[in-house]
Design brief:
about 15% strand, alpha+beta, about 25% helix, about 325 residues, 7 helices, four-stranded antiparallel beta sheet
Length: about 325
């Protein structure tokens, strides 16, 4: 996708000016919707590297501008919200149930297979204003399901999660990512990596619907164990963090119903508001790459110049080849 096209469809300058002109709270008209937004001057991400903190107004502005970019990864999917009403430095909590006070226009899905105690109605970001609503609701992180709501038991992605341990260097994470790159190339499987905005790297593999979560979990486990066998000293398969000896975990267990990885271009709750940003495979060899190097203040420059490398996962699905 040409870089300029990726950013098309965002809020107009008049709409952004209207957001800036609001006081501490007010009604913002954007994307054809009227949203009541609150606590606009509240600092919700501490500053980083001498920069000023990020206010809720700036975060809502980010949500509105990034919405057209993120929409292809959220539409038709339930969204798990990771909320931090007190800001990124407080303890967050998962909020999956769409609250009753959500406006009638907010897209939603009633889960027919909800277990007792589970959320029954989920937000579905099918339109950009819904992401702005979530941001105002205190959802600093956005996690879309890997299955669509029309077939919630059949994922459209297999997920590889390279989860750094306490003693895992960034160079170790890159080594593990490059090994997965080689393995996927060998298998002829199309996939795309992204930095997490925290310490790790995730790789998303688009698949044709059919395999269950159990099937995708087994396939990713086989792949990651083959990779881990090349560098056994770097990887632990222990579930308990305390038993991993500070080593990285290749977490195939994320391939399960209602478990999610952070969506591309979602912010993370840390100083500077870092963002989980898709990258080209070649960037794994770029010495300037960092897992949390892009923030809500810098990611638009990158999108304007490079476009969105993650668009590849929106292409046709694939059958997962056997791993011997």
């Amino acid at each position: 996708t040409p870089p300029a096209d990726v950013l098309a469809g965002g809020p107009s300058q008049d709409e952004l000016d209207a957001l800036d002109a609001l006081g501490h709270e007010g009604t913002w008209e954007v994307f054809g919707r009227r949203l009541k937004i609150t606590n606009l001057d509240k600092e919700i991400f501490p500053g980083r590297d001498g920069e000023p903190p990020v206010t809720k107004r700036e975060f809502i502005r980010y949500a509105a501008r990034i919405a057209p970019v993120i929409l292809p990864y959220t539409e038709g999917r339930a969204l798990n919200m990771h909320r931090f009403p007190g800001g990124a430095q407080t303890k967050g909590f998962w909020h999956k149930q769409l609250p009753e006070h959500a406006p009638d226009w907010v897209p939603r899905w009633d889960n027919p297979n909800a277990d007792r105690g589970d959320a029954t109605t989920y937000l579905v970001v099918d339109e950009p204003a819904a992401l702005v609503w979530a941001a105002n609701f205190g959802a600093l992180e956005w996690h879309a399901w890997t299955a669509r709501i029309d077939e919630p038991r059949l994922p459209t992605y297999a997920l590889i999660d390279i989860d750094a341990g306490s003693d895992t260097s960034w160079e170790d994470v890159l080594v593990l990512a490059r090994l997965h790159r080689t393995a996927l190339e060998h298998l002829g499987v199309r996939a795309q990596p992204k930095v997490t905005g925290h310490t790790g790297i995730q790789i998303w593999v688009p698949i044709t619907r059919g395999p269950t979560y159990e099937d995708t979990r087994k396939w990713v486990e086989q792949l990651s164990k083959a990779v881990g066998a090349v560098v056994p000293d770097m990887v632990s398969w222990q579930w308990d963090v305390g038993k991993r000896g500070g080593r990285a975990r290749l977490d195939y267990t994320q391939n399960v119903k209602n478990k999610t990885l952070v969506a591309p271009y979602s912010a993370r709750p840390a100083p500077g508001a870092p963002v989980s940003v898709p990258i080209e495979w070649s960037e794994l060899d770029d010495p300037s790459l960092r897992p949390d190097g892009f923030t809500i203040r810098t990611v638009f420059d990158r999108l304007a110049s490079r476009g969105d490398p993650f668009r590849t996962v929106l292409g046709p699905g694939q059958s997962l080849p056997p791993i011997h």
